[in-house]
Amino acid sequence: MFREIHKSKIHRAVVTEANLNYVGSITIDEDILDASNIIENEKVQIVNINNGARLETYVIVGPRGSGVVCLNGAAARLVQPGDLVIIISYAMMEESEARNYKPNVVIMDENNRIVTDSYKELHSTTV
Prior knowledge:
Layout: E1 2-14, E2 17-19, E3 25-29, H1 30-36, E4 43-48, E5 54-62, E6 69-72, E7 84-94, H2 95-98, E8 104-108, E9 114-116
Parallel strand pairs: 1-8, 2-6, 3-5
Antiparallel strand pairs: 1-7, 3-6, 4-5, 4-7, 8-9
Catalytic activity: L-aspartate + H(+) = beta-alanine + CO2
EC number: 4.1.1.11
Subcellular location: Cytoplasm
């Protein structure tokens, strides 16, 4: 059996641009892509922390070291520069591989610089 698993995540990236007149996609700094194990043309889900919008698109590689996170085309209507987003990719895996897979998660700062790439997600509880 195959399972769809959380493969990679870029957490709390700041949208630097929203380009409505581009064909489509999300442009992401190549350094961020390398750290998160996301590649050009890979399908990603974008979750806007500011307004709750969720969308899917594909990745275009942006200039290395630029910090660019630009939503292009129709997706530009769902974000504003300055919004915080979570960018997630998933992968299909055999169950045996999926049970032991460790996602690549990078946490970003307010300038789209990587704070850590060794984050382990824990559950949240309220008391």
